[in-house]
Write a structure and sequence with these properties.
Elements lengths: L7 E2 L7 E3 L2 H29 L5 E2 L2 E9 L18 E6 L7 H15 L3 E9 L2 H4 L18 H4 L11 H4 L10 E2 L5 H15 L9 E5 L2 H15 L8 E4 L3 E3 L17 E5 L6 E5 L4 H11 L6 E10 L9 E10 L17 H15 L10 E9 L10 H9 L2 E5 L2 H11 L3 E9 L9 H27 L3 H4 L14
Parallel strand pairs: 1-3, 5-7, 8-12, 8-13, 13-17, 14-15, 15-16
Antiparallel strand pairs: 2-6, 4-5, 4-6, 9-10, 9-11, 11-12, 13-16, 14-17
Amino acid sequence: MPDDQQPIDTPTLAEPQFYRDAPAAVDRLIALYDEATDFLCARFSQALAGGAPDHRVRAFYPELSVTTTSYAKTDSRLSFGYVTDPGTYATTVTRPRLMRDYLVQQITLVMENHGVPVAVGLSDTPIPVHFAVAGHPGLSVPQEGATEFILRDVFDVPDLSTTNDDIVNGTQAPRQDGVSPLALFTAQRVDYSLARLSHYTATDPDHFQNYVLFTNYQFYVAEFEAYARAQLSDPKSGYESFVGPGNQEITDANGTLSAPDKPPQMPTYHLKRPGAAGISLVNIGVGPSNAKTATDHIAVLRPHAWLMLGHCAGLRNSQSLGDLVLAHAYLREDGVLDADLPTWVPIPALAEIQIALQEAVAEVTQQDGYDLKRIMRTGTVASFDNRNWELRDQSGPVQRLSQSRAIALDMESATIAANGFRFRVPYGTLLCVSDKPLHGELKLPGMASTFYTQQVKRHLMIGINAMERLREMPLERIHSRKLRCFDETAFL
């Protein structure tokens, strides 16, 4: 029987309700979402135990929408919190408990800037059973063929037509009903990334903080844990717990964190503060593919900033091992984002991030003004997808690097910055020179060991200092207008 003729078992379809109180609107989103996922989980458990029903089972994501009829301009200093033209704007919503603070904040801004209520109801987008069971321990979807019934004949499964980056990439086709997107990600896109985050990092999305550091070396993890334990021993630090892979969480500086039996692809650690105002450190490993994967998924949590702290090849003879590089521009030869963000799109430096990083360098190193030039250089960072680029014929790569005025080369920074630009997440890069291949100083075992011992702690402390500076900055200042396009969504 065709799907549109098959009987459907579904929760009662609730009528939209209007709210002028953001917390009340989010409470309604939570109630609708919980009802839908509880329904799907109950029906799925029954099907696993007693066989498939003779009808389809379906529940829908809640939907949040707002309608405005005025062309009145809002505060021109803002980069978010308002729609650009009259009309109806809507977004599907998932995991509203996890996203509660974000949703309350964004809904409040839209209502304040336009003076209209928001509507909360049900969308016409089904919740895939895989995502519905994600929050129910002990319940999972078996692999295809493991059940006595054909899963797709009864339950909805992930649908790529609603699990994509069309909104953030600016390629979304207009809806036939004329409704425009209110947020950058659909509910299914968020659900997909939340599942991937748990897989890659071995920590639940609930632990992620709003300030994210990326690194490509385990040395930084050890220093971050040492710093975290010191903060937990200081009652005035404001940090309340530290989380490692496997969702191990300690609140005492002497607490034990065991190494996971199976290390995740991207080990992640979270130094938590109330309101997710702490710092998450993600060891993405080496290469632009990992950098893209991590940022593709972390972006749905709408962090306030992310920074790359890694090692690089210094390209100028005037540089020394241990010198710092503050990226002001990027030469993108990583390749992994070209289909989503063409290389002709400039990736601008963000003043707020750059100032925070420079001030952090000055404070940690006790160098200031013109003297900072002795240990830090600003300029273009090139990111290649070939770790052994220096083994190729040098006439091509070196000429391009020189023409671009590049001062450093790595494999991840341009990817992280470009995805920050694409996802409207403020980004920055501070690298440490660990070798100078063009000048005969290669990264060899003895040299690398000494370098890491001496430089990693200082480098990490600069990144943490910069994040703490950004945390004190009003949100509307961090989120630059440079990151917003012509016809931008109201929600960050």
